[in-house]
Amino acid sequence: MSIVIETERLILRDAISEDWEAVHAYSSDPVVVRYSMWGPNNEEETKEFVEQMIEMSREIPRRSYELVVTLKETGELIGGCGLHKAGFNAEIGYAFNPRFWGKGYATESAFALLRMGFGELDIHRISATCRPENEDSSNVMKRLGMKREGRLREHMFFKGEFHDSELYSILRQEF
């Protein structure tokens, strides 16, 4: 079953192969991925990622919802937002084209995923992480009502070094 989530200004939907170029516009941008364990992507990596998104959408039962985010008014693909379920827990994440930063789209799309997770998917706890220096992402989590649980020290190794993460979460009864 294909997912389409509508918000005030956005449509979150399952990816199609043709989305790769718009996804590549932000996934190849060093500014976008500076705090991520992936990227900057080359074209082949982006095409593979979009195909992985399509495969996730075919999973039965579905555990991963890695969706593209488009502007409702124009249909332009501006980013991506994901929710990955593990039992009664899930993790969310997001990445957007920098042309659309600072407009509340990350918060709006992540809020839609929280609503789906706590509603339709019967999730109890949803978490998210960001690098400590990524204040913009941290602020999105705070606006969602997520609470900072602490710092995971040097728990990830990517791009040649160890990285800390700030851990945030929200419980169903807090949403």
From TrEMBL:
Q: What class of enzyme is it?
A: transferase
Q: Which UniProt keywords apply?
A: Transferase
User: EC number(s) for this protein?
Assistant: 2.-.-.-
- Source organism's superkingdom? Bacteria
Tell me if Transferase is a UniProt keyword of this record.
yes
What is the protein's name according to its record?
A: GNAT family protein
Organism (species):
Saccharibacillus sacchari
